Amino acid sequence: DFSGPCAREQAEQMLSSGIITKEEFDALPLAQIDAFLASSLCQRIKNSYQVNRERSFCKLVPIEESGDEALIQGIIDCYFFEGNNIVLLDYKTDIILSSIEEQAEKHRNQLMLYASALMALYPGSNVEIYIYFFNADNFVQIK
């Protein structure tokens, strides 16, 4: 929950409710989650009138070499609305060996496909794309 208590409190509630095990609780990167919850991007999520998480999609994409099509399936971590605009957010736990901008480029094709699926689902919408890197406590916009 983006608007609820800090990560530790939410995780403790989940633990006491039996939603997660003690081992899962102990493995949670609570400081990193709290850093995300305090980010400007998360504030935008909190202000959104509609937030969608873990949404699956299917999209037919052409295969140029053969003229055939392939069915691509995926799960979008999060997208939310700001007016007529859609903000697409993907979470990553990559180990950052270079800059986060260079790391983000490695995920560009995946996120462009997700944005394409959202534009087909919501015609006329613009899509902003972000990756949040938990290991860097920071996000990058993909343009």
Task: Please describe what this structure looks like.
With 143 residues, the chain is an alpha+beta fold. The chain contains six helices and five strands. The protein has a five-stranded mixed beta sheet with strand order 1-2-3-4-5. Strand 2 and strand 3 form a beta hairpin. The model has no long low-confidence stretch (mean pLDDT 91).
Features:
single chain, 143 residues, alpha+beta, 5 strands
Task: Tell me the layout of helices and strands.
Blueprint: H1 7-16, H2 22-27, H3 30-37, H4 40-47, E1 51-62, E2 69-82, E3 85-92, H5 100-105, H6 108-121, E4 126-133, E5 138-142
Parallel strand pairs: 3-4
Antiparallel strand pairs: 1-2, 2-3, 4-5
Structural class, by secondary structure, is alpha+beta
Q: Report the principal-axis shape.
A: globular
- Strands of the widest sheet, in order across it, are 1-2-3-4-5
- Span between termini: 28 Å
Largest sheet, described in full? 5 strands, mixed
Order of helices and strands: HHHHEEEHHEE
Taken as a percent bin, the fraction of beta residues is: 25-35%
Number of extended strands: 5
Poorly predicted regions are none
Q: Helical percent range?
A: 25-40%
At a glance:
The chain has 6 helices and 5 strands; from the N terminus they run H-H-H-H-E-E-E-H-H-E-E. It is α+β, with helices and mostly antiparallel strands and 143 residues long. Strands 1-2-3-4-5 form a 5-stranded mixed β-sheet.
